Amino acid sequence: MIVVIAEAALADLVTIGRFIRQDNPKRAATFVAELRRACQELAEIPLAFPAIRTKAGHDLRRRRHGDYLIFYRVTDRVEVLHVLHGAQDYLAILDMP
Q: Residue 50 belongs to a domain with what CATH number?
């Protein structure tokens, strides 16, 4: 299955990298690479992670990687929509138009 990383998810990865880089530049690069790998691995096991329904009624799936959550949708491909810290109000973010 093909994995597509949406622009919003790419922006999330940049934000995560910048945040971590403030304290540990080397770890920032390796951690973002781990997150990207975790996204790509969804091609092999797209239905292995829990499904959630947002307030707006969107059916998504969520994969945890450390303190971060990868939100994605499965159709004929895997579309990674966001990569967010688990402490964020992610349901509010996911329900944004």
A: 3.30.2310.20
From residue 57, alpha-carbon distances to 43, 64, 75, 89 in Å are 24, 21, 16, 17
pTM of the prediction? 0.92
Range of the domain at 7: 3-94
pLDDT tens digits, 6-19: 999 999 999 999 99
Question: What count of other Cβ atoms lies within 10 Å of the Cβ of residue 19?
Answer: 11
Tell me the β-bridge partners of 60: 52
- Give the pLDDT score at 57: 81
Total domain count for the chain? Answer: 1
